[in-house]
Amino acid sequence: MEANRRTIIKGAGAAGVIGGTAAFTSACGTDDQKQGSGQESGGAGASVPADDVPVGSGTVVDETYVVTQPKAGEFHAFTSVCTHQGCQVRTVTEDKITCPCHGSQFSTTSGEVITGPATDPLQKFTVEESGGTLTIS
Ligand code: FES
Question: Which of 66, 80, 81, 85 to mutate to test the pocket of ligand 1 (most atoms within 8 A of CB)?
């Protein structure tokens, strides 16, 4: 069950992108395989192809990070674990990361709370782009 769950999550990494139909379409192609092999996880950082993070949206990486690109070439990374009760945030628009459990919303640039019930911001991580790959640390 765990293997299946992980496979689904990896596949949903790009498919979980919300707010960009073009990005969703590309997620159905070879990008899934490229993303799967390019990611590292384990809580000490991760990498993801920059192309998997659409402009004006974002994507969840390994159920650990949410990477946003509110404007072209501007990337931000945060924990994907909601500070309210620990659900995975899922929906990313240009300016808001939304948790599906109770509706908390966070800034895509700072991780600050926009709408509760969460009161604490999402922890921010460093994200650097090199050669089309984003490295989160
Ligand atoms: Fe995210 Fe409650 S766990 S809003």
Answer: 85
Q: Provide the pLDDT for residue 114.
A: 97
Does ligand 1 come within 6 angstroms of the Cβ of 114? Answer: no
User: Does residue 87 line the site of ligand 1, with CB under 6 A?
Assistant: yes
- Cα–ligand 1 centroid distance for 106 (angstroms): 11
Q: Helical H runs in 16-118?
A: 21-27, 31-38
> For the chain, what percentages of helix, strand and coil (3-state, to nearest 5) are there?
25, 35, 45
Q: From atom 3 of ligand 1, which residue's Cα is the shortest distance away?
A: 85
The answer as to CATH 2.102.10.10 being correct for domain 34-136 is yes
Domain boundaries, the chain: 34-136
pLDDT of residue 6: 41
Q: Helix, strand, or coil here: 78? A: strand
Per-residue confidence at 119, pLDDT binned at 50, 70, 90?
very high
Task: Write out the H or E segment, with its range, that includes residue 14.
Answer: helix 2-15
What pLDDT, on a 0 to 100 scale, did the predictor assign at position 43?
A: 52
